[in-house]
Design goal:
The complex is a heterodimer of chains A (245) and B (301).
Chain A: E1 2-11, E2 14-24, E3 29-34, H1 40-47, E4 57-60, E5 63-64, H2 70-76, E6 78-81, H3 93-100, H4 102-108, H5 110-123, H6 125-129, H7 140-153, E7 158-162, H8 170-187, E8 190-194, H9 198-204, E9 207-212, E10 215-221, H10 222-227, H11 229-235, H12 240-244
Parallel strand pairs in A: 3-8, 3-9, 6-7, 7-8
Antiparallel strand pairs in A: 1-2, 1-4, 4-5, 9-10
Helix pairs in contact in A: 3-7, 4-5
Chain B: H1 3-39, H2 46-63, H3 68-91, H4 99-121, E1 137-139, E2 142-144, H5 146-168, H6 170-180, H7 182-187, H8 192-218, H9 224-238, H10 244-265, H11 270-284
Classes of the chains: A alpha/beta (245), B mainly alpha (301).
């Protein structure tokens, strides 16, 4: 469904993505593991059109999308839930959802948008309770749910999630991951997930990539990655001693 | 003479005068804010939009003797198109936009518009008849022109339209979204470049209306843009950059203070008042009286 071929990207003079090649099949959950600054977020931003790509190509459903504008990609069905819950804080929850479904409004009109928002409220009942509140006043978990709901409003087929668990309590993280797996099943979504919490990510993922200083160094089935000693040491928080035992 | 009554009528007179001029500053400030919210820059050609509106109105209503409503609409459309052209040809093509670059471009555009206005309309002032009668009315010893009522009425209509547009229409919400969080707006599928163009169109339109309604009172000429622009900027800063409702109140406040300065000190110092206020605000509370420190992104300069 999504294929990256030798993608390179720069921040000014800094070479952040070095020949990234990866693919995601229809209906898969794929996770991208890596340390801070390895280029995980940049990869997602490149796919969603926010980060300019220099050299390399990105294909989506067989068509090249390198260099396309983000709003075009949203129309094609790629939605990114960015890191750090990027909401429109001084606007109400309802308005945030409306803006998330901006594309639906453009294509199908106001009625359909309203129906879609009602549908979203069934999925996230907590958002219905909070619909008149400013998005900035929600709790962290609620904000993350709103961010995911906003992305879903655009009816994506490929959902890119950037650290959905950042700064959340463990119980809420569990909920959110359960929801992601459930959504993927129900809506036939394809998911690319970045996560610091590698354990949780690998549990729901089919496959995983490991990225180190801008390069893909490993590609495996999620189960195999969990068993991989190097991955265990670096990303799953189990030190060598434990492995030796 | 009855002293208290005299003071009352004086103050009332200053308030009328202040409302008249202040409304224009308020409209100019709203134009500044719209572009500031969309792009983070101050459009120094804002005053020029006001001048173009005034001059075009004079031509259409006097030389071509169109009726005032028709000329009003045509003039607003004309200046809106100028605003769109400005964005399309000077702001949009900039490859690596930085705040400073874009601001210098707006200064250049303001000089170009000023030069073009001088060539087209000449250096003399242009007169225009009032919208309705030019007979003054007397209220408690103070006089008010019917044109002032028009100005206040049109300002109120624009404020109402502004509130409606930004709170109840999808396009308005998209513009707000772009101002709040550009990346998130793009990820929601909003075309941010279109929103920038729209902000230029709207602020040019509002500038034109300001020019149209003030021209019968101040006689427009091609040099007025700079001063109107600066005073509008003063109002925008006093109200808190980006906060348009603050700008309306601040604009009217500056207008009234100006009128009082003219009455109690000397009319020579009238223009200085706006600048003194602008400096004082920048020294004491750069976020403006209605702006929060968080909203203030002046540090980008």
């Amino acid at each position: 469904m999504l294929r990256l071929v030798n993608v390179n990207s720069y921040f000014g003079l800094v070479h952040v993505l070095k020949n990234i090649s990866m693919h995601i099949n229809e209906g898969e959950i794929v996770t991208l593991l890596g340390a801070n600054g390895a280029g995980k977020t940049t990869t997602l931003r490149a796919v969603s059109g926010l980060q300019p790509v220099r050299g390399g190509k990105i294909f989506y459903q067989g068509k090249e999308i390198t260099g396309a504008f983000p709003e075009k990609l949203v129309e094609l069905g790629i939605a990114l839930v960015p890191e750090g819950r990027q909401l429109f804080r001084p606007m109400s929850v309802y308005e945030n959802l409306e803006l998330g479904g901006h594309i639906i409004y453009k294509l199908y009109g106001k009625k359909q948008l309203k129906a879609d928002i009602d549908g979203m409220f069934l999925l996230f009942p907590i958002l219905k309770e909070r619909k008149g509140q400013f998005a900035g006043t929600l709790s962290g978990g609620e904000q993350q749910m709103l961010a995911i709901a906003m992305a879903l409003m655009a009816r994506p087929r490929l959902l890119l999630l950037d650290e959905p668990s950042m700064g959340l309590a463990p119980l809420i993280i569990k909920d959110i991951f359960k929801m992601i797996a459930q959504l993927q099943e129900e809506r036939k979504l394809t998911v690319l997930l970045i996560e610091q919490n590698a354990n949780a990510a690998l549990k729901i993922a089919d496959r995983g990539y490991v990225i180190e200083t801008g390069r893909i160094v490993l590609e495996e089935k999620a189960k195999a990655l969990m068993a991989n000693q190097e991955v265990k040491r670096a990303y799953l928080g189990k030190d060598q001693k434990e492995i030796w035992e | 003479m009855d002293q208290p009554a005299h003071i009352l009528s004086d103050i009332l007179q200053f308030i009328f005068m202040g409302l008249q001029r202040g409304s224009i500053y308020a409209l100019a400030a709203m134009g500044f804010n719209m572009i500031y919210n969309a792009t983070g820059i101050i459009n120094f050609a804002q005053g020029e939009f006001v001048v173009l509106g005034g001059l075009m109105m004079v031509t259409l209503s006097t030389a071509l003797s169109l009726s005032i409503p028709v000329a009003f609409v045509l003039t607003t459309l004309f200046v809106t198109v100028v605003g769109i052209c400005m964005e399309r040809f000077t702001i949009n093509p900039v490859k690596h936009p930085t705040v400073l670059r874009l601001i210098i471009i707006t200064i250049a555009v303001s000089i170009i518009i000023k030069g073009a206005a001088m060539c087209l309309w000449g250096k003399n002032s242009h007169f225009m008849r009032h919208f309705s009668s030019s007979e003054t009315w007397e209220i408690y010893g103070a006089t008010i022109l019917p044109q002032t009522i028009w100005i206040i009425g049109i300002l109120l209509c624009i404020v109402a339209g502004y509130i409606f547009f930004f709170n109840y229409t999808m396009t308005g919400k998209c513009m707000r979204a772009c101002a709040i969080n550009r990346d998130a707006a793009r990820l929601a599928g909003i075309n941010d470049r279109k929103m920038v163009m729209l902000s230029f169109a709207l602020s040019a339109g509002i500038g034109a209306i300001a020019g149209i309604i003030i021209t019968p009172i101040i006689q427009m000429d091609y040099t007025r843009g700079a001063l109107l622009g600066i005073k509008g900027f003063g109002a925008a800063v006093l109200g808190g950059l980006g906060n348009s409702m603050g700008a309306v109140i601040a604009g009217i406040l500056i207008g009234i203070l100006e009128a009082m300065a003219a009455g109690y000190v000397s009319s020579h110092y009238m223009d200085a008042i706006a600048l003194i206020i602008l400096l004082a605000v920048l020294f004491v509370k750069p976020s403006g009286i209605f702006g929060s420190a968080e909203a203030m992104r002046l540090k980008e300069f």
